[in-house]
Design brief:
The chain is an alpha+beta fold. Helices cover 24% and strands 32% of the residues. The chain has one domain (3-111). Strands 1-2-4-3 form a 4-stranded antiparallel beta sheet.
């Protein structure tokens, strides 16, 4: 197989949302998530996509939402977004991670 094709395929496979918990350390593919309980019904959530040659806002938003819902016991939440950005962690201009940070306040307080 063509080496360029294999590189492109491997980049595509790792460039999606990551399931790595950053509380356990850094991910070898750059991405992951972190959920920190701030108060009884409020969580600070960070979501980072794996490296990709492009910004990946759709995946980071989906990932952030997934962890916000999970932190709130799959109940509704109110999101307060700190920010979304793209970082070039390796300084190569070809390996970007997309980051979303914010707070999720659980609406159904009876379950928490």
């Amino acid at each position: 197989m063509n080496k360029a094709f294999l590189v492109a395929l491997s980049m595509l496979l790792v460039s999606c949302a990551s399931s790595h918990n950053l509380a356990n350390g850094r991910s070898p593919f750059g991405g992951g998530y972190k959920v920190v309980k701030v108060s009884q019904n409020k969580y600070k959530i960070t979501a980072i996509t794996n490296w990709a040659p492009w910004p990946n806002y759709d995946d980071v938003r989906e990932m952030w939402d997934k962890h916000a819902k999970s932190a709130c016991g799959n109940n509704e939440y109110r999101g307060e977004i700190i920010g979304e950005r793209v970082r070039d962690d390796l300084g190569t201009g070809t390996h970007f991670v997309t980051v979303k940070e914010g707070y999720a306040t659980c609406i159904n307080t009876l379950s928490h």
